[in-house]
Amino acid sequence: MSGMRSFRHVGAWLSASLLVLGTSLAAAAPPALSDPSPSGLARGFEAERGRWQSHERMLQGYSAEGASVNLWRERGQLRKIELTALGERGRVLAEFYWRAGHLVSARERRMDYGRHLMEIPADQPTPMSVVQDDVIDYAGGLPRLWWRDGNPGQPRTAEARSRARELGRLADSLRRLGTLPPPAKGCEWQCGTDWDTGRCARFVCR
Predict the structure, then answer these.
(1) What is the per-residue pLDDT across 106-140, written as a single tens digit (0 to 9) for each?
(2) Which residues form the signal peptide (predicted)?
(3) H-helix or E-strand containing 163?
(4) What is the Cβ-side half-sphere exposure of residue 165, based on CA atoms within 13 angstroms?
(5) Whole-model pTM?
């Protein structure tokens, strides 16, 4: 089955499955409230979310079953980007927080369905287990704090810096996607070049 056909099948229940996602992730608790963690920083942002305005872009070519990108702004200033990327055996949920035009926190969770998407009956909840959960706080574009699966890591290591660069490139790509107008009828935004480098230098509408 082609990716486009599968994406149309998935699109019908994307919103409902996101509700299931929130329930499924409850077992993967964020760091404790007392931690000076990126999730704690995110809670401060979320407390102001009622004042934000959102808009959505659909993105093809990033994942096998399509991706949804939601951008949140306050008085025109970017505050948050949410990415939901659907694959054939799992999905990626990423959240990026911005302050004064700078990326300050990122979280990426990778979920596994345990089987192929098309093997899951449409009337059953999508089973999901978190296989990787990275949370990074940034300072000057570098990782200030890093959590892997709820455990604090060393932000000065090569692995932490690599993950920070990877998530930073994705965040910047999605930010630029959000500046593009709604696509014309029958046209969908796709990356024209460079996803292999962890970023998209140019988006095209096909």
Answers:
(1) 999 999 988 887 877 888 787 788 899 999 999 99
(2) 1-28
(3) helix 158-177
(4) 9
(5) 0.79
